[in-house]
Amino acid sequence: MELICKVQNYEWGKKGLESKVAQLQKSASSSFPIDESLPYAELWMGTHVNAPSVVKETNEQLSELISRQPAVLGEEVLRQFQELPFLFKVLSVNKALSIQAHPSKSHAKELHSLYPNIYKDPNHKPEMAIALTPFEALCGFRPLSEIKKFLESIPELQEIVGNDALSRDCQLIQCAFRAVLTCPKKTITKLIDSLLQRFSESDKTQRAYLHADLVQRLHSQFPYDNGVLMVYFLNYLKLHPSEAIFLGANEPHAYLSGDCIECMACSDNVVRAGLTPKLVDVDTLCSMLIYTGAPPTEKLFAPTREDEFSVIFRPPVPDFAVIKISVPAAENSYSIITRSSASILLIISGKAQYNNGTVVPGTVLFLPSDEMITFTNLEGELLIYQAIANV
Ligand SMILES: [Zn+2]
């Protein structure tokens, strides 16, 4: 079943046809109007009430179809979740998204019962991002030695954190991280100005070491925001297309720029600490994070090969897994692997024929569990991402 999916025009999105979201929508439906001055931030594929997908042929909401015919979910998905447990998205990021982490299931329950207006559901929100274009993100704490080196060599950080914290190794990341995020506006303004001055007096090597370009960019997007200095605490990653990161519970992260596929459990629970006009909850964030540093290479999430054309990104949660299917132009046809879960497929590139019609970039299909599709290549390399429940 082909789906019609909704676009979210959040202000941080890429504008007009620069945006992968807009490109895919335009390709799938030539009548989709593109306003070059409008941001096209997210494409939502699934049953979430904020932007529910609709079955193209019948105009029925996918959620209604599922409640009418729950068997389409697959037996195990139905038993564990009684609904489609994931939300599948495309993101086109022009401006940094907030520094955030997502609570564990038990913590989400607690937060939701204490602050139902802020944490609106009791579910966890593990998420995975797979790059479609070069994609920048901050992800997880840097190794302790790296953070320590920044703290010792950048006087502005030293002033915030204090020598006292620096002398302690065991709680250094916690103390320094909290000190930066809670630093009063007046002090942070003075210190960021001083840091920018330092950049202007630095040579190329020094600027690269200080991540001057990135700090300046974040400062231009969020002037004098405490979160700008998180560059010295969190790993900076630049994903190539097809590379992925998985954000489990309590892992600090921020998406900075680029287009990606994103899949997550159905939840809105985000604890934010900076680079955002939204509510920040530094206390909750600081109390929940995983403070173990690790190098950026350890943050990449590797897929497992399933057959010649299919690899699967299978995170350690039951809510979702994502499959990347790439069929070279020379290959005539490919039958995708049958799954015991309902799935959503998004065509990224290529053109192919399948049982009911033709798919082009931007086509979104809903496939009931245990059903199969054979794609026959018509044009170019076929690239598809498929989201399933990981049961
Ligand atoms: Zn997140």
UniProtKB/TrEMBL annotation:
Pathway in which the depicted protein is active: Nucleotide-sugar biosynthesis; GDP-alpha-D-mannose biosynthesis; alpha-D-mannose 1-phosphate from D-fructose 6-phosphate: step 1/2
Highest taxon listed in the record's lineage: Eukaryota
One Pfam family, short name: PMI_typeI_cat
GO biological process terms on file: carbohydrate metabolic process; GDP-mannose biosynthetic process
Domain annotation Phosphomannose isomerase type I helical insertion: ranges: 169-234
Keywords carried by this UniProt record: Isomerase, Metal-binding, Zinc
Cofactor note: Binds 1 zinc ion per subunit.
Binding residue positions for Zn(2+): Q100, H102, E127, H253
Plastid found in the keyword field: no
Entry protein name: mannose-6-phosphate isomerase
Organism: Ceutorhynchus assimilis
